[in-house]
Amino acid sequence: MNTNPPRSRSALRRLLLLLAAAAILVIFSYGWTVTRIDLSVPQEPQRQRNVGNALRELLSPNVFTQDYEVLTATAPFTIGCPDAFEASPVVASDQPYIVVEPACGRANEVVTVRGYNFAANGLARVNWIAADGERRVRRVVGASGDNFITDGSGGFVVQVEVPRIRGSAGQTHTIEVQGRFPVGLPRFSDTTGLVIEKMVETIFLALIATAVSILPSAILSFFAAQNLMHPVRTPLGGLLLSFTLLPLGWLLGTLLLGQIGLLALNVGRLSGVSGATTAGLLLLGAVVSTRKLGGNAVMPPGFNPRALLNAVLFAVIATAALGLIGGLGLLFGSTFRDGLLGYVGALLGSLGSLIELAIVPIGGIIGAFTLASIGSTLTRQALKHTSAAMSHVLGGILGALAGMILLGLTASIGLTAAWLSLLTPVAAAGMASAILPLLYRRFVHRPENPTTTDRAIRTVLSWSGAAAAFVVAFLLLNVRQALVEGALPPQTVAFEALGIKFYAYVVQAMLIGAVLGGVAGAMAGTKANFPIGSVLYTVTRTLLNALRSIEPLIMGLVFVIWVGIGPFAGVLALALHSVASLGKLYSEQIENIDAGPIEALQSTGANRLQTIMYAVVPQIIPPYIAFTMYRWDINVRMSTIIGFVGGGGIGFLLQQQINLLRYRDAGVAVLAIAIVVSILDYASASIRERYI
Amino acid sequence: MLIIENLTKIYDNGFMALDNINLEIPDGQFVAIIGLSGSGKSTLLRCINRLIDPTKGRIIWNGIDITAATDDELRQIRRRIGMIFQQFNLVKRSSVITNVMAGRLGYINPLFSLVNYFPPQEKARALAALERVGIADKAYNRASALSGGQQQRVGIARTLMQEPEMLLADEPVASLDPATSHSVMKYLELLNQEDGLTILCSLHFLSLARAYSDRVIALKDGKLEFDGLPQEIDNERFKMIYGEDAVEVEIH
Ligand SMILES: Nc1ncnc2c1ncn2[C@@H]1O[C@H](COP(=O)(O)OP(=O)(O)O)[C@@H](O)[C@H]1O
Ligand SMILES: [Mg+2]
Description:
The complex is a heterodimer. In chain A, the strands form four sheets. In chain A, strands 1, 3, 5, 6, 7 and 9 form a six-stranded mixed sheet that branches. Chain A has a three-stranded antiparallel sheet with strand order 2-4-8, with no helix packed on it. A two-stranded antiparallel ribbon of chain A has the order 10-13. Chain A folds into four domains: 123 residues, Immunoglobulin-like; 188 residues, Orthogonal Bundle (MetI-like fold), CATH 1.10.3720.10; 149 residues, no CATH class; 145 residues, no CATH class. In chain A, 37% of the residues are buried. Chain A is elongated, with a radius of gyration of 40 Å. Helix content of chain A is 66%, strand content 11%. Chain A is an alpha+beta fold. In chain A, a hairpin with a 5-residue loop joins strand 5 and strand 6. In chain A, helix 9 packs parallel to helix 13. Chain B is of the alpha/beta class. Chain B has a domain of 76 residues. Chain B has a six-stranded mixed sheet, sandwiched between helices. In chain B, strands 2-1-4-5 form a four-stranded antiparallel sheet, covered by helices on one side. The chains are: A alpha+beta, B alpha/beta. The interface between A and B is large, with 45 and 49 residues. Magnesium ion (MG) binds next to helix 1 of chain B.
């Protein structure tokens, strides 16, 4: 009785196991076919010979070369031994010389050649020079090749057959011994030199790519850390206001801050070190005055002109300082062009021109965020004291504006590539996902203590709202056409304002955004706590995961199109991939930290940035160092092959050698890669061990 | 005066950790909060400085509604409320003095914190705070090199930097041995008597509550089970708070 159910269960399990085994078998057989595995191919003799030769050459890398000197000695030989023959006397000397015995003979007779004063243990061969001057190699008796080896004292005794040459009887021929002897020590071959040069390029390619990626990925890692982002919530009103202020801030930032930055840049470039120092001192003075402004006094809550002034001043100082640095970089770059300083000059110069290019957009970004933060700080108090009804009205207005901007932005991005037009329906779905649950809470049921059912209902409502909005936006914006035909949305201009062209397509998206944002904002009200942290977390993680899934070789292909063949393309490809990969690795380290200090510092009244600086950063430095080393290690591996797509480094050389069938040269490159990778492997492992 | 009205906390998973708590705590009182583990002591303390956002109810301190404060206001309020923890919550890799100075962050221009700068007078203040808890000589050691009792004293020095008016202590001695526990409790007593700090301290052992507190609050399953003088807790009340099988242990 008792044993029956387990037995039937085990029978079922056995059956399932059998089915699983059968399924695995089918999958593997299909894989076997798909990968065209054919065991007869590797056995074809021609292929085996080819691979044997290639491997033999690969395994004899021509790392070294050797200089040789050729020593030659001759002796006469008379064919046929005429009666009057008399061997000419041999004069012993300290030069290489040979003695032939007998000094005359008939064809096919064997004669003995003795050599003296050649170099020890070298390769030598016997040449037969006929009367007409024709020279042929005579293989010595018992040898398998043309060459024989001299003995330890530089002498030899070999035997050769007299060749049968028609009509040569009575003639005197010459026997010549040529020896090839190494001079000096072996040295590295030209190939080795080239490989070392390319290897250095490769290592630096990996180093620069890693170094460049550290800062962006460190910043991104904070946004991709769930434990930091999840608790970040902010009142919806302030957030929406900030968001609507972003474009205005951007505009003001590019106009005002951007110009300040350019001015500072020119001051740095034109006025030289003294002018820049003065400007720097002025900036320092400004910083000191903000310090006074920051003060220790208890700031009254609410409207705080000091904080506001601080924010503006900080924006100005930051932009000006960046501009100044850029200007000095340009100055330095144009002053120092030669020698070791020339390298530094080139680096600073290109940093300077990078800043020159970026300073106006950077000013825009700083402006956007400054204005947004000022806006939300200023209105936080006001929003707090608005009545409930007012909060919903305001929420509707601000929500409509924010939705308009958001979808306007995604639609503009969608104008650039067909598949990017999917962004707009996705963003619309994100906004709409809030609406139905809010409606439900307001008009149907507002649970005090939400149960599992309540949560399930919310999830269903939220997904159905999202799906509906996605479909509507998809149809209205005709995304189908973009996806299927790869056609960009039509670029019909609806109207022009402020010098900006508004495309009909974008305006349509903005209208959808206004409706969805307006409804969602009105339903939620400005007092709702928006989980901005979770949203940022999700966006950052998605972005990092998408980037990480693109192999650096593919990125390399794109960058080669952009900046041409060479290590620069490789640096860009590896750096981009490293940002994605390090961002993820770093963020996992943040998620692993001890949360206690964060809680402790929050309880002291530290703000979010301070909490991160003093509670998070000290905890993540060791793992960050370890993972950066790890990434450098990976980047060196990758940079050895990024050259295959034109990304520079040793891979480029290796590919050329393989294409030219120069396997002995390729062997040198392969050897170099193996050595460098294993050294780095070891080094990075031991450094990591110290930090983890 | 700290007034807690109808305070209820329901966690995201639906668990009700605090159920309609009402309390009035006058300035300068040393209040012990006792209860079994899981009874809601930590939740109550964290609702007061809003490390946890209450689900319902109000907390009013000196006339300011903490539960309605915006982020900026909350930071201003938190500066005046110190907190120490069972696990000390120090940054173990940082030096003792950095840990202590971090207690001052609420007063410092955030731009300075970006470049890890503290004005010199803050360093002096931190050394004075360490002096007060008797470990000034450890200022430049790593926090992890200190014993448990010393680490908790660093925690106290950190809250001293805030110049607090109230101190929340969440089982500050639960990870310490009895002798060290008393030395840490003595510091809290000192802050209560010399500096006039209001102290809310959750404790595992009733004997510690009896020895140091003016008033005992007992929680059971998130509800207020007892609120009164330490000596009012007789055997019957004790069994109500801790359950039928509990036996009171003394800690010396
Ligand atoms: N973040 C959380 N999510 C869900 N439940 C929690 C959370 N934190 C605490 N709890 C639960 O709330 C109850 C009270 O916890 P706590 O306040 O830590 O009690 P105490 O400090 O008295 O031991 C416990 O049952 C605990 O499991
Ligand atoms: Mg607890």
